[in-house]
Amino acid sequence: MNSLILPWLSAFSMAGGSVLAEAEGPPPESVALLVQYLPLVAIVFLAWTLLYRPERQRQLAQQQLRDNLKRNDRVVTAGGLYGTVAAVDRDGDRVTLKVDESNNIKLDVTLGSVLRVLGDTNSGASQGTEGAG
Prior knowledge:
CATH class of the largest domain: Mainly Beta
Helix content: 40-55%
Number of strands: 5
Low-confidence stretches: 122-133
Order of helices and strands: HHHEEEEEH
Shape: rod-shaped
Mean pLDDT: 78
Largest sheet: 5 strands, antiparallel
Structural class: alpha+beta
């Protein structure tokens, strides 16, 4: 038992009466740097998780939607126009939409302005009336 206490007593006397003073000294350099940069790393990680990643996934989904756009798809544009795709010109970045069947009215819009593809014509008509009220 004396052999366990003796090293502590000698360390206590060499430290000027306080063993705790030695333990409370400045932390090692690597730990100090880690503690200093940890909040910055956490902020970058949160920004990437909450802002960048969802936006990137949304952009990829929009690109996939535009790549899969074909004739006779019912679409909604960024301006709120409902129409049926009559032609797709990927080189010209243009989509021709038929907006009125009875008068055969067609509009050319950019491929990027197509926001979503609607399922069927009945679904598209009901979705258009829901947002109006």
